[in-house]
Amino acid sequence: MLTHKEARAILENMTKSDSLLRHARTVELVMRAYAAKLGENEEYWGITGLLHDADYEAYPDQHPNVIVSQLRERGEEEIAHAISAHYTKWGVPYNTLLDKALLACDEITGFVVACAQLQPIEAQA
Predict the structure, then answer these.
(1) Is residue 101 within 8 Å of 52, Cβ to Cβ?
(2) In degrees rounded to 5, what are phi and psi of residue 95?
(3) Which pLDDT band, with edges at 50, 70 and 90, does 110 fall under?
(4) What's the whole-model pTM score?
């Protein structure tokens, strides 16, 4: 299994933007929380969240094909499938809880962060 350290190195090799690194970490944390709630492997789900957009900045025209290919080369088919499914333009079916959770967590974290940026907590008094 891919370790968190290896996954982080893959992400940081292709992603330099603070906002994309923050997004990856946010999705990782939410995926870990859902894994815990559902009795799934928190490390595995977290790595999936961390890597889901790893190639977006470096290879925008090929996203998510680059990261999916790298994961398949490493034998990480389940993570590769979930990342493929999260890219809705490919029409990959959502077969597992991991597939469904990644799409949901990616969408909800993006929404929550956008809302927080529009209405910062300190502005609410």
Answers:
(1) no
(2) -95, -25
(3) confident
(4) 0.91
